[in-house]
Amino acid sequence: MFIAVAILRYKGLGTIYLINTILAVLAAISAPSRKQPPLLWGAKTFAVGGIAYDQLMQIPTPEELKERERREEEKRTLGRGRGRRNRN
What we know:
Elements: H1 2-30, H2 38-48, H3 50-58, H4 62-80
Helix pairs in contact: 1-2, 1-3, 2-3
């Protein structure tokens, strides 16, 4: 009985680390596009798992930053042309 429990326990850990390994490879591939060190994110994702991978995915890519900046500039430009009143 004890042996069966021990085998199931290690099988569960094996599944977790298999998933973490897959996520670590994805993180190492995705990190350079976000100007992040791939080895750091691969190791962090292998050790911590999905939480680290999610943190990496929340870092915007340079293209996303440019798009965000363009949208904010567009909002500022539209805000100026709407005839705001100066309340003094």
